[in-house]
Amino acid sequence: MGILALALSMASWIHVPGGTWQPTAHVAELRDGLEPFVMRAAAEQRKRLPAWSSYTFQYQGRTEQDAKTIFINAFCSPAPRDVKTQFVLVLDGGACYFRVKYDPASKAFFDLEFNGDG
To answer: Cα separation of 18 and 86, whole Å?
Structure first.
């Protein structure tokens, strides 16, 4: 991957301040595993995804039931001004918008939710 492509790819991953811990060391493994996981789930649910390169990903380290997790919010619409400080929340919009969690201990994704199409 060229330097420009890598820079553009990294720019689409935005850490949102807050949460309970800093997941910086886990971003590379997230990036590597998220696309195949979401593609598989979308196919199973008969969802048509836009181009993966159109997504922006927000993430934050959280703690759930004493376990570290990473919350990931994904959207393919243009990013609003406050994208670095607030999670983008959109009702409907279909597979252009989804949320998922990641367990860094087991390296597993879970609780994937696509927006509705209403």
So the answer is: 10
